[in-house]
Design goal:
By secondary structure, the protein is α+β, with helices and mostly antiparallel strands. About 20% of the residues lie in helices and about 40% in strands. The protein contains nine helices and 24 strands. The strands form four sheets. Strands 1, 2, 3, 4, 5, 6, 7 and 8 form an eight-stranded mixed sheet that branches. The longest helix is centred in the N-terminal third of the chain and has 18 residues, at about 115-130.
Length: about 450
Amino acid sequence: MISRTSAERVLNAALATGGDFAELYMEDGESHSISMLDGVVENAAYSRARGAGVRILSGTRSAYAYTVDISESALVETAKKASAIIKGEGGGVLPFTDIRDGNYRCRIPFSAVDNAKRVHLLKLGTDAAKAESGEITKVSAAYMDTDKKVLVCNTEGVWAEDRRPRTRLAFTAVASDGMEFQTGQEIPAFGMGFEAYELIDPEKDGRTAARTAVTMLHGVDCPAGYMPVVIDGGFGGVILHEACVHSLEATSVARGNSEFCGKLGQKIASDIVTAIDDGTLPGEWGSIRYDDEGNPSQCNVLIQNGMLKSYLVDRLGSRIMNQPMTGSARRQSYEFAPTSRMTNTFFAPGYDDEEEMIRTMGEGLFAAKMGGGSVNPLTGEFNFSVLEGYWVKDGKIHCPVRGAALIGRGADVLMKIDRVGMNMWFGHGMCGSRSGSVPTNVGQPRIRVSGITVGGKGGRL
């Protein structure tokens, strides 16, 4: 994308007014997307995005500017505009001696795949969903792939290149009895080339989405109250992601906007809880080989046996907090400066029997699939919807329930986890924050929370 000689000129221009650190980020990416409704293609698109951003630091102050023109002259001009904001003592540009090559080699590049194969995947899932039940009235499906090449170089001599292929499907099924509607959704995704579809089964995912919709159509309104809740694995990890780990990002902690500020080395969770953010997992949706500051991705143990061990820290956060960087700086694109973000975040597997969790819980809720929600990172207060839920009575599944919501504080939930299962798996999504929207995995084994407030409109079952 740029020669090393040209990159040095850009970084020298960035330090012209006295910043003590400068960084050049460049990207070049291609994407395909297709959407389908009830087996008919509605939209197919190809796009290419290319651009660069220059960031300058002076102590804990920062400036950022970006451009779509990646010629040397345009990049130097962009660097000058950013440097005009920063005044400081100044630094120098070291030779690029720390060369980091994270280029991933796709076995089946997306550029070698024609759209007929992409459409075929969507058609398989759509047909399977429709065949699952006569109550399925609508199926929407979407395909996406992207292949982004990234370069990050800085005045400390780092030259890091990465390639980030990613792809996912999304199936949404709607079930109706003529009076009410319920939806189910499955979104499989991987951080690899088209070979991902040797692992993804679109027919299975279409059927699963349909089954969820039909099951919830015949559910009853969930009772409300304070009760034990079992949360299944995969996307159940959204509670860890939203209600806990956002509060462990330097974006919140460095500014004092987190309930976990100043708690390193303290007990913040049940003894059986270990939480990890690992961007090094091969082929996963949230994985990166280098972060968007050019640092190697890491496996960061955030909570170990209930003790807070680490935050997620980017370069600016490191300066403010006096904590080491954790390979966690991410951004949506060159239009954003990087901030501390999650990659693949999950509760580590435990040792508890998954069926025993339900058998010994008495009466309460089994949340088989979680939905979205909201959280305040300063207080940890959250509200999450349950997409697929079941009422448990006398230790047995009694009936499906709908309209359930989990309400509480992240710190309270962490302390009340009394069971952690042995089999962990991921759900796949996009996470939004100050540096835009980035791919992240959320995961956990099945867990049990001894008590949490459940919102719902139903009466006693």
